[in-house]
Amino acid sequence: MALPELDRKRLPHHIAIIMDGNGRWAQKHGLSRAAGHEAGMKSVKAIIRACRELGSIEVLTLYAFSTENWRRSKTEVGTLFRLLSKYVALELDNLHKEEVRITAMGRLDDLPSRAQEDLRHAVELTASNKAMTVNVALNYGAHAELADAARAVARDAKLGMLEPESIDESCFSRYLYLPDLPDPDLLIRTGGEMRLSNFMLWQLSYAELVFSRVLWPDFRKRHLYLAIAEFQSRKRRFGGR
Ligand code: FPP
Questions:
Q1: How far apart are CA 237 and CA 208, in angstroms?
Q2: Is the overall model pTM greater than 0.85, yes or no?
Q3: Whole-angstrom Cα distance, residue 37 to residue 52?
Q4: Which of 37, 82, 87 to mutate to test the pocket of ligand 1 (most atoms within 8 A of CB)?
Q5: pLDDT at res. 140
Q6: Is-contact 52 100, C-beta < 8 A?
Q7: If you ran DSSP here, which 8-state letter would residue 49 be given?
């Protein structure tokens, strides 16, 4: 099927994706949840490539593990972090060659140590790449991010480095995990649910939200293009007229 036409001059700068539906995809195919996540990795690869090809997408943020995901079985949590390490081992060289920078956000200190090491390596190796940033949200929750920012603001105020009166939106946002990334202008959630699930609540204030019924392991370039076409069909007013 032909890809939808996109206006290359009005591509989103930052696409954030809630990758949902791995479990349901697995169930539909009579497979284990682990197989669903494994299949989801293929979509990760395909969507990074599609964004890279589009050229002017600056950031792609992927919600890979939330602060609430620890409630899943130990086996499933283990599978997810093993997949992360496997992905880094298989794809890092390629991503680096493609000039992709990798960043991560979340309470990273609480991740299993192997995952922390693999991530740190990927982030350090690719730190000066300029073509596109792939930002992985891991042990991420927007409430945790805002609480962490508030704690850091309070600490600086107590040390006399910050006047409480000077704390405004732009000052506060400097305390979020990755203040230098532009806010997402397009949020895509796959898997048919229509909620934000504690994802980037500060940064998504003006994002266009696109919900796709496609389960994440089935999500490919065509579905990404459909979401971007939907984004381009919307009128963005940012509260103005
Ligand atoms: C949601 O599906 C998906 C996740 C909780 C994890 C997504 C992770 C990956 C695709 C692999 C790791 C990613 C990277 C970037 C290394 P679900 O299990 O909630 O699906 P369900 O709602 O159908 O049960």
A1: 11
A2: yes
A3: 22
A4: 37
A5: 98
A6: yes
A7: H
